[in-house]
Amino acid sequence: MPSYLAGRIGQALLVLWAAFTLSFILLQALPGDALLIKYQNPDMGLSPEQIAEIRASYGADQSLVLQYLHTLGNFLTGNLGYSVSASVPVLDQLATNLPATARLAGLGFAAAVLLAVGIAVLANLARFAWLRTAIASLPSLFISVPVFWLGIVLIQVFSFRLKLIPVINPPEWQGLILPVLTLAIPISAPLAQVLLRSMDDVLTQPFISVARARGASLPWILWHHVARNALLPTLTIAGILFGELIGGAVVTETVFGRSGLGQLTQQAVDNQDASVLQAIVVLAAAVFVVVNLIIDLIYPLVDPRLKKSLGANA
Amino acid sequence: MSIIAPPLPTLGGIGAATATPVLELENLSVSYRDHRHHYSRAVHDVSLSIGAGEVLALVGESGSGKSTTAQAVIGLLAGNGRVDGGAIRLQGTDIAGWSQKRLESVRGSRIGLIPQDPTSSLNPVKTIGAQVGEALRLHGRFSRKERLEHIFELLARVGLSQPALRARQYPHELSGGMRQRALIAAAIALRPQLIIADEATSALDVTVQKRILDLIDELRREEGTAVLFVTHDLGVAADRSDRLVVLQGGRIQEAGRTSEVLANPRSSYTRALLADAPSLALAANGPWRSPVQSATVHPAGAAPAEAGIVVRDLVQEFRTGPRNAPVFKALDSVSFDVPAGTTHALVGESGSGKTTTVRALVGFHKATSGSISIAGTDVGSLAGEELRQFRRTVQLVHQNPFTSLDPRQSIRQIIEEPLLNFGTSDRAGRAARIEGLLERVRLPHAVLARSPRELSGGQRQRVAIARALALDPKVLVLDEAVSALDVTVQAQILALLEELQRELALTYVFISHDLAVVAQIADTVSVMSAGRVVESGTVKDVFLSPRHEYTRELIAAIPGQRGAVGVPKAERPPATHATARISPAIPTTAKAGRR
Does the beta-carbon distance from B173 to A210 stay under 8 Å? Predict the structure, then answer.
């Protein structure tokens, strides 16, 4: 087990490094940079020599390799760089924006799981075939809905038509409802599909009819026998969907005009603020990698067969 | 034994001659709905009854309706099935029209089910204890502590050592036999009056099967439970039942006392079923194949007259984990000879090394050491294109005709594939070859355009044989090739194999766990256990005078030895008789193969 853990952590670090390197190369390959945008502005009236001097002070005149090593070293020591456009350390920017996004993403994910489980369980408990089909086809509907469109429709319906939630400066928890829904619905769809599918698979297993032969009812079967077996494939897909969650949060924040990492990303792209983008990419990769690492470590707890068996296995 | 659950008020007195049978079916009819919403009947007017302490065997081939009948009794028909009519009386109460909710109160408490496949019948993520105790939780009002005590008691009752440890273990940590014991413990947890054993031992090795059957017998005797024994295996039915009901196409063909039905079958179907059971034929006129000239066993080392297959000191080791972990010896110095044109059988239980031997024979992987020579070619020295060309010489026929054929190919494509792989001829030549092969395996021309799904199990196995023959091989490796088939189909395929061997001078390596089939088809046999050949020789010598303890055990475990057909036998004592009386004679009824 310790060697397995070490291996998985090593893999995770490798992924992080790759994400860092790739984003670095991509950001450098883009034409222009934040320094030029900020200081070439005619209003500032700086001469080319002065601009070159400023660039040198940021280390932007060094070769790419040196810049890469420099930035990598900084990241490793926890220094995420300096935002040129906002003139504050990137770390500070992240610190102010992360909590709002974390709250949105966390709640969005929880809502997605609830929705998915709800759909799967209701579909399985439905007494009529048509009802079951109707519930089971919800995910296909959800998955084909674009996030930005869904956000706009929700605002239209709940804020403008029904006037349930104010658009401007809503109370904190009320303001979260629509963005969380917007984020949760498209993510719940693949989750529900996988869950439905694996529940179906488990329900055809012989041990299910054996349990029924002991007098178990359908709800009992779903809770005691199906849930844990169907969890494994769902966990895998949940880990992958986490990446979607981060992307979805960016769009959702933009649509609802909420401050957070999404808005920060959007501004950084507008200003070509490479160091901010670099930090956001690495942060997103880190979250993704850690979540999937945790899921990998949860597997053996869910399925005892994945533990290294020491007992007799004749 | 002490009490496992408080006896239910409805429980009939043990051994008491109650007027009402535990289970009584009267004109039970069941049908299934197809995708066009048409109902077609699978069980027609089946009537039977089982008294306390009695064993009734429901035998028949696949599709005979035996499982459907059992499922109807417990109210667990597939979603598209329905009971059309008739009564299912459980101690006089008709439960045929009961709702699922009402049936749930009966299942597990008054009717217990011992399922077929111990591996898939246990939930892999729940402990043994939780599953054994499930019925107690569902029906009883026991405290956690009481329940735990019951579980330990039950596990000990079914012969599992260290019950406390077993209760905490997961299914994958137990062997097949132990799993089946756990399932039996779960089925008897509330001392049901009726146990339905649905092919309960079909997936087990013969020796394990015997022990499990003994256990069910013992429980029945002590508890006075009625047992409905659903099986395709006449041998098991003959050994273990008081009465026999033979089903065909959902109709009762014959019913009566087991001994009488076996000695005096009245219906022609029963007679055919008995005749096709491999070793019944053996018992009739000497089981052994007429000796083929070269079929004498050569002591290891002496080269046989005509080299067929020579295997010498084959060793196969597998790593069990990372670098320093101990190696597992799957094969330990295995040697045998198969003269060309004869059949050699490899027998043994799961894990004995049969399959590993096969994989080395056909060149799927190289053995750790030792040599295999087929028709003069050293298989171990081949690689790349040479190995590919060698595969023409040795062809494999798999156990399961349902999965060894690509469901998306037509039969023509399936048979054509090896011809294309080796580019043997042009289009017209291939078409002619396919026709010839079809004729060889006695399949009508019309099957060519069909897909495997549209064929029966026997037809599929014929297709698999045709495909194997496409490249004119010298050796066919038949890996449990008839085990998944019903006895009558099995008999036809065996006859086909014999005919093909005569005409094409094929050499067979026949892998089987079914000793009766082996006796019928093989010239020589090697008995394998734990990766070693413990005994080998002509089939006759090995079966009639087994020298090794393990061989004797295997032979003794073959079912059907108590219900010898045509041989007068003592009446089976009802509910009191002791362990199996093993006759020293050869097996008389076959185990028709596991599913």
Answer: no
Helix (H, G, I), strand (E, B) or coil at B264: coil
First to last CA, chain A: 23
What is the tally of structural domains in chain B? 2
- For B346-381, b/e burial (b = at least 16 CB within 10 A) is bbbbebbbbbbbbbbbbbeebbeebebbbbebebbe
| Smallest Cα distance from A144 to chain B, Å | 30
Which of B107, B125, B186 is closest, CB to CB, to A212? B107
Residue B205 has pLDDT above 90, yes or no: no
Residue B187 CA, distance from chain mean position: 22
CATH number at residue B491: 3.40.50.300
A 292-311 → B contacts, CB under 8 A: 302-305, 309, 311
Domain of residue B454, residue span: 340-365+376-557
Q: Which of residues 223-252 of A touch B (CB under 8 A)?
A: 224-225, 228-229
B355 in the same domain as B227 = no
Residues in B lying within 8 Å of A, measured between beta carbons: 74, 76, 100-101, 104-109, 111-113, 115-117, 120-126, 131, 134-135, 138-139, 169-170, 172-173, 175, 183, 186, 351
User: What integer pLDDT is reported at residue A245 of this predicted model?
Assistant: 84
Hey, is the C-beta of A206 within 8 angstroms of any chain B C-beta?
yes
B264/B388 same-domain check: no
Q: Of A139-153, B192-206, B495-509, where does mean pLDDT reach its minimum?
A: A139-153
Contact across the interface for A304 and B121, Cβ inside 8 Å = no
> Is B588 within the bounds of a domain?
no
In which band, very low, low, confident or very high, does the pLDDT at B561 lie, cut at 50, 70 and 90? low
Tell whether B73 and B190 lie within a shared domain. yes
| Last residue of one domain, picked from the residues B252, B273, B294 | B273
CATH number assigned to the domain covering A91-306: 1.10.3720.10
A277: distance to nearest CA of chain B, Å?
Answer: 42
- How far are the Cα atoms of A86, A138, B263, B551 from residue B557, in angstroms, in the given order? 84, 56, 22, 10
